[in-house]
From TrEMBL:
This is prolyl oligopeptidase. The keyword Hydrolase applies. The keyword Nucleotidyltransferase does not apply. It catalyses: Hydrolysis of Pro-|-Xaa >> Ala-|-Xaa in oligopeptides. Its EC number is 3.4.21.26. SUPFAM superfamilies: alpha/beta-Hydrolases (SSF53474), Peptidase/esterase 'gauge' domain (SSF50993). The lineage of its organism: Bacteria, Bacillati, Actinomycetota, Actinomycetes, Streptosporangiales. It is an enzyme of class 3 (hydrolase). Keywords: Hydrolase, Protease, Serine protease. InterPro entries: AB_hydrolase_fold, Pept_S9_AS, Pept_S9A_N, Peptidase_S9_cat, Peptidase_S9A, Prolyl_oligopep/macrocyclase.
Length: 685
């Protein structure tokens, strides 16, 4: 069958000279989404994708498995609690409050706000008494996070819209009359290309104009800083933190709000200028608990006095574990001997241990439903003997478990509301060796039953920003495996599965390690008979899109098919678009001669070579993506279509009115069906 001809893409003779190196950029014109030429090219790519797409083989089954719905960990405020739930037929999760008598009411329903499904709920934060709720929404995938306040009892809007609140925490003061939050400066006060940056911490009094907000922190600091802010339950202690972009380190300060005005808090340094991360928890016992990877790559918990919070005063309570990463903790103190529950991930599998709060000694463990992922250990803010946590694994939709420290029992507190028949699968974790001899782990999910030789396989990876790939319920994975395929997830360096050292072994000058780990995962799957080169597809999104972009340019012969979603691919110019300037702490900057060398060494767009038989490749991008601009995929798609000699297609799926993050269920189903159909066609499933 003859492949459809590719749309014409003009090649320009643009070459930048950077650090004495010629850097060609023949498709720079595709960086302008509003030009008639770009729009015409995108329309032609949409026609080509439609012609090549074929029937969506897996759509009904993915939709059926997503009818499981979902449920979120509760947030307690007195006798009220708040939680999210998505029922089988809902496009988005709804945020609810439950009264002491058990009455349940919807507080924020994205579909009620916008029946088109384009509005998403980005964040929520009840005040300390549970009387007011702050929530943030965005439209069409832009993740702009417009802030509103509603009265919990009546559901009536009290405040808002307050704009420029993307990635803003809300730190309520007791009584609900005021909160600290983070907001970008107005676009009129910053250069045009810096409107996504320049954040500040403000104090806002409910019912007053934001023009009267008092700036608390951030003036004169780096434009790419992100800020955190929180207030202790009793309202005494304020915590402010600053991250330079996505750097794995932060500066942290505390202020005693009883000793200085809330408009001018006197901040004391907890940590400043140190290459480590710190998170603070103000205990009901008056102690300050410090969760840190300082001197402990896998994390530890120390205690100190919040009035004298400097490093020299820290006393270690929970030491670093030799092979598990400390992820979370909660304190249960309505007991004869108060305890701390500590969440860990051991090689990406979650567990919780119980420790004596005074000594840190292990006194037990929390039974978990299986080998999966635990998230968000929650306690009552006023204390107690119960904790709640989320649990999921490869065949279990999200559940909420309740742990009772008096009995030592874990029970199911809430399940995802939809009843679905989940196919049986076999999950195993294997260890393979990377190029430099490093042991790397990989989860392999396959059909139950006797193996019948190599199978069409999808290899997935991420490998960046310290994010861990942990087991979780996925309609897409289950659909693929039920159809006879294998799905493998590699825990590459650059992630957080083995702690901060593991992350740093895959960032900056070490980024090639991530790609080597991925190639080695593919070679292991082939060598052990799981699959063959002709049956192996790879998939990744965002930083994982960079991963598969590098994989297909470095080892095109190793892979049959590639799905590259919302990717970074032009690593020389990535800082100029979206939130790219906040990621140079992860990748490096092309402005620096040494760091340019790292980026130039693997930048996928610049490593597309003429007359190479590239794998079948599908780029999926989102027109409203304000994190990773779709221009990366547009330029790479044009380059591959020009260069590849294979009869395998290079296609672009360009979706409008969605962005990098949350989307409606029906849109998720469509995207998953298209990607699985493409991978099945080109791996022989």
């Amino acid at each position: 069958m003859t492949r459809e001809p590719y749309p014409t893409a003009r090649r320009e003779d643009i070459v930048d000279i950077l650090h004495e190196t010629p850097v060609p950029d023949p498709y720079r014109w595709l960086e302008d989404p509003d030009s008639p030429e770009t729009k015409g090219w995108l329309d032609a790519q949409a026609e080509l994708f439609g012609a090549e797409r074929g029937p969506q083989r897996f759509k009904d089954r993915i939709a059926e498995l997503l009818r499981s719905g979902s449920v979120g960990v509760p947030a307690w405020r007195g006798e009220r609690y708040f939680f999210s739930r998505r029922t089988p037929d809902q496009e988005h999760a709804v945020y609810y409050v439950v009264e002491p008598d058990g009455t349940e009411r919807a507080l924020v329903d994205p579909m009620a706000l916008d029946p088109s499904g384009l509005t998403t709920l980005d964040a929520v934060q009840p005040d300390k008494e549970g009387r007011l709720l702050a929530y943030q929404i965005s439209v069409g995938g832009n993740e702009e996070s417009i802030l509103y306040i509603v009265d919990v009892a009546t559901g009536e809007r009290v405040e808002g819209p307050i704009d420029r609140c993307r990635y803003s925490p809300i730190a309520w003061l007791p009584g609900g009359e005021a909160f600290y939050y983070v907001r970008r400066l107005p676009s009129t006060e910053v250069p045009e290309n810096e409107t996504q940056f320049h954040r500040r911490v403000y104090l806002h009094r409910v019912g007053t104009s934001t023009e009267d907000d008092v700036m608390i922190f951030g003036q004169g600091l780096k434009m790419t800083n992100y800020y955190g802010v929180s207030v202790s339950r009793d309202g005494r202690w304020l915590q402010v933190s600053a991250h330079e972009g996505t750097a794995p380190r932060n500066d942290v300060w505390v202020a005693d709000l009883t000793a200085s005005p809330i408009e001018r808090p006197e901040l004391k340094v907890v940590q400043e200028g140190v290459d480590a991360q710190v998170g603070l928890y103000f205990g009901r016992d008056g102690r300050l608990y410090v969760h840190t990877d300082r001197d402990a790559s896998r994390g530890r918990v120390c205690v100190t006095d919040p009035a004298e919070p400097g490093y020299d005063t820290w006393r270690e309570l929970i030491p670093e574990h030799p092979e598990a990463v400390l992820s979370d903790f909660a304190i249960l103190d309505d007991l004869e001997s108060p305890v701390m529950l500590v969440g860990w991930t051991r090689h990406a599998i979650s567990e919780i241990t119980v420790h004596d709060l005074a000594t840190g000694e292990v006194v037990g463990e929390v039974p978990a439903p299986g080998l999966g992922s635990i998230g968000g250990i929650a306690e009552r803010p006023e204390g107690g003997h119960e904790a709640w946590f989320g649990y999921t694994d490869n065949t279990t939709p999200p559940t909420i478990q309740r742990y009772d420290a008096r009995t030592g029992e874990t029970t199911l507190w809430a399940a995802s509301p939809g009843a679905v028949e989940v196919p049986p699968v076999r999950t195993e974790q294997v260890v393979y060796r990377s190029k430099d001899g490093t042991d790397v782990r990989m989860l392999i999910i396959s059909p139950v039953g006797e193996a019948s030789g190599p199978r069409p396989t999808i290899l997935y990876g991420y490998g960046g920003f310290g994010l861990s790939m942990t087991p979780g319920y996925s309609a897409s994975i289950l659909t693929w495996v039920e159809a006879g395929g294998v799905y493998a997830i590699a825990n590459l360096r650059g992630g957080g599965e083995e702690g901060e050292e593991w992350h740093r072994a895959g960032m900056l000058a070490n980024k090639q390690n991530v790609f080597d780990d991925f190639h080695a995962a593919a070679e292991h799957l082939i060598a052990t008979g799981v699959t063959t080169r002709e049956q192996l597809g790879i998939s990744g999104g965002s930083n994982g899109g960079l991963l598969v972009g590098a994989a297909l340019t470095q080892r095109p012969e190793l892979y049959a098919a590639v799905v590259c979603s919302a990717p970074l691919l032009d690593m020389i110019r990535y800082e100029k678009f979206g939130l790219g300037a906040t990621w140079n702490v992860e990748y490096g900057s092309a402005d620096d001669p040494e760091q340019f060398g790292w980026l130039w060494g693997y930048s996928p767009y610049h490593h597309v070579s003429e007359s190479v038989a590239y794998p079948a490749t599908l780029f999926t991008v989102f027109q409203s993506d304000t994190r990773v601009h779709p221009l990366h995929a547009w330029k790479m798609c044009a380059a591959l279509q020009h260069a590849s000699t294979a009869d395998r297609p290079v296609l672009l799926r360009n979706e409008t009115e969605v962005g990098h993050g949350a989307r409606s269920v029906s849109r998720s189903v469509d995207l998953s069906a298209d990607t699985l159909t493409f991978l099945a066609k080109h791996t022989g499933l």
